[in-house]
Amino acid sequence: MEASSINFLSLVQCMCEALHQRGDVERLASFLWSLPPSELLRGNESVLRARAVVAFHRGSYHELYAILESHSFHPRWHSDLQSLWFKAHYREAEKIRGRPLGAVDKYRLRKKYPLPKTIWDGEETVYCFKERSRNALKECYARNRYPTPDEKRALAKRTGLTLTQVSNWAACSGQS
């Protein structure tokens, strides 16, 4: 790749990120519209995320779904993109039904429209814990019902949870 292409790509990424962080969706849309149709930009994650945000804010939900399903995004962006996915489905349903959705409606929509693998690691989350973390907690507490603070810290580090989450899990499970 040429140096000028790399500089152009870096500039585009920087602009997309800056406008996205500022929440300036109209300027972001104008910027995206002004870009040349380039293979270099087509699969760029910053551009795709920007396009997804613009599609969401314009109510172009089918375009949003197509973008989110067409590219495997870095896990760092999964949470934001998952939120767009579900909010878009909620808004579509609210428009059809003509009323705000309740908790049960939203639950049913999440089950009806599961996240695509491109924005999800495939691991179920139950009560804010990934399945892998829950299993690690259960195994640890099965071996030792009264872990020391050092053991809790080590478990927190291994599971990616905070020390508070590990301690609370034990307390809520009636195991400490």
TrEMBL record:
Residues 131-170 bind DNA. Its main location: nucleus. One of its GO terms (biological process) is anatomical structure formation involved in morphogenesis. The keyword DNA-binding applies. InterPro entries: HD (IPR001356), Homeodomain-like_sf (IPR009057), KN_HD (IPR008422), SIX1_SD (IPR031701). The keyword DNA-binding applies. GO terms for cellular component: nucleus; transcription regulator complex. Residues 129-169 form the Homeobox domain. Pfam families: Homeobox_KN, SIX1_SD. Transmembrane segments: none annotated. It comes from the Eukaryota. It is found in: Nucleus. GO terms for molecular function: DNA-binding transcription factor activity, RNA polymerase II-specific; RNA polymerase II cis-regulatory region sequence-specific DNA binding. PROSITE patterns: HOMEOBOX_2. Keywords: DNA-binding, Homeobox, Nucleus. This is Homeobox domain-containing protein.
